[in-house]
Amino acid sequence: MEPMHCGKPRPRQVVVPLLRRDSIGASHHVLTFDCEQPLEAAPGQFAMVRGAQWGESPFLPRPMSILTAGRRPSILVKVVGEGTRRLASSEPGELFTVHAPLGVGWAPCPEDRVPVLVAGGVGVCPLVFLARGLTEQGRRAIALYGGRSAGDLPLDDELAEVTDLRIATEDGSLGQLGRVTVLLESAIEETKGRLKVYACGPRAMMARVVEMCRAADAPCEVSLETIMGCGYGVCLGCAVPKVGGGYLYACSEGPCVDGHAIAWES
Amino acid sequence: MRCDPSVKVGALTLKNPVLTASGTFGYGLEFEPYFDISALGAICTKGLSLLPRIGNAPPRICETASGMLNAIGLANIGVEAFCTDKLPSLRERNVTVVANIFATSIEDFAALARRLDREQGIAAIEVNISCPNVDKGGLEFGVDPQMAAAVTSAVKKVTKLPVWVKLSPEAGRIAVIARACEEAGADALCAINTIRGLAIDVQTWKPRLSNRTGGLSGPALKPIAIRMVWEVAKAVKVPVIGIGGVTCAEDAIEFMLAGATAVQVGSANFRDPLAAHKIAQGIVDYCERRAIDPRELIGKALL
Ligand SMILES: Cc1cc2nc3c(=O)[nH]c(=O)nc-3n(C[C@H](O)[C@H](O)[C@H](O)COP(=O)(O)OP(=O)(O)OC[C@H]3O[C@@H](n4cnc5c(N)ncnc54)[C@H](O)[C@@H]3O)c2cc1C
Ligand SMILES: Cc1cc2nc3c(=O)[nH]c(=O)nc-3n(C[C@H](O)[C@H](O)[C@H](O)COP(=O)(O)O)c2cc1C
Ligand code: FES
User: Fold this and answer.
1) Ligand 2 atom with minimal separation from the B219 CA
2) Quick check: is A199 in a domain?
3) C-beta of residue B40 within 8 angstroms of C-beta of residue B273
4) B1 in contact with chain A, both atoms CB, cutoff 8 A
5) Interface ipTM
6) Predicted TM-score (pTM) of this structure
7) Looking at the domain assignment, is residue A253 inside a domain?
8) Nearest CB neighbour to A4, from listed B32, B65, B267
């Protein structure tokens, strides 16, 4: 019946109550919703989330990576502005519109390559989901997780459960001193270049990771975090410049895309 | 009482008074997973140009109080790809399609209309003389009555399809432009497109959009749009289609009371793919409670 979505779970928008909010420090919060019909989603897909009682401002829903799917889907929110502040201060029972699953998730990792996940900040979210999936398939990923200091590494325990986790902080408060790219250098060496990198984090980090993968001739997927209007391909607001000119649309062609296809310098 | 939600826009009968606005509904097929879009009054396509356009550099959108700014730059697949890749599927699904067109010269507007006129399955052409987000050809047609009339008659001449003209709120006196388009043969007038706005990031001291200015849409636009629909409806005899900040049935009813025969739902689609569908249902519920047909609302506040 649905040629555009065959084999892929259909996106839907539902109104669901918040089940619980778990704060991790002051600026990170895991929001868990209560869905009657389980949310089917693949690692790397996202949801557009908005408070059902927000009125007209903030007007648009906010894109959030799906951390867990199922009857109790969850997201990890970092406060950066008004929308995320409202999400972070919501209380159980409050109603939200959740439009999911959206976008294209991570592509499979070839059998002959080691999956190496590179996370920065809330970019950890789609990677935790990916690592859990890999574990179910009997594969173990290496995870490299970086932040300014120990407080910027939400879900590090969750990641440690399902990966071989290595941490770097810029102030040296946890793990190795320096940026996550230092860890990537040794991971490339350790795997003798037989790795596939999955990265999600700040733009500058992803650009550097892609550059290193290019030098090592390794595939590298990234999850793009652009501003989004609709999340499902109808506003054309989420354009990202491509190598060779033109744009791709992060919500419908991504958010998980080949990092080598993005014109990072622009 | 069961009401009859259909409305007539000139010779064209629409199933109900709710359409979706150009640039906020893709090419319609994106809504396939959510609902049967053939149940809508009509869908207006993303603005089509003769050649494909890649659009403006990002950031293209930003949120503002009760609305948003956009400067997409009319990114679209081009009229040819629309006719071959999208229209057949829309036709198959019996969708009422309004093709929105954009060009930078009168000749190109006519060429677009001529191309679309060859196709089956298009209910009307909506001529966008009001896009604020391109270097050339957007607004100058929309703010000068002679230019607006020239575009309208050039398009009228080459097609037998109904021609709707989408007006710009940037025209000093929108009623004057509306009348000029009506005299040039417009079958309906759509009001309004977005109004140019500007938002500046106080951390970086730079405009938030790469295009600098962008078109304001959403609820913030609504009272201005209703005032303009009201002015246009008083000035012309052809039907008026109201656009601007419609997010619920009450908003749509307000436009109809101000003189609109139908409304288009725009940015509201971004936060709910079912917005237009729900609004159409809401109008029916409202009318059934009052035992009237939606068309009886049209212009009731026009004093
Ligand atoms: C696919 C995808 C997945 C995401 N996953 C997560 C997640 O799991 N957890 C999380 O906390 N955040 C995530 N984000 C980012 C999140 O959507 C933004 O932080 C949020 O929309 C900002 O809203 P706000 O109202 O708080 O901020 P605003 O007041 O709108 O903006 C505050 C600042 O954030 C920037 N910003 C706005 N929107 C975005 C955006 N979409 N991406 C990046 N920066 C933005 C603005 O330019 C501004 O500098 C994701 C974004 C995308 C596209
Ligand atoms: C992202 C975006 C893209 C748009 N693109 C077009 C377009 O291509 N052609 C056009 O005539 N209007 C375009 N519009 C204007 C809308 O059709 C509508 O007139 C306007 O958004 C006001 O309605 P709203 O407040 O319901 O969104 C666009 C609006 C938005 C928000
Ligand atoms: S966010 Fe609207 S098209 Fe991607």
Assistant:
1) 25
2) yes
3) no
4) no
5) 0.94
6) 0.96
7) no
8) B32
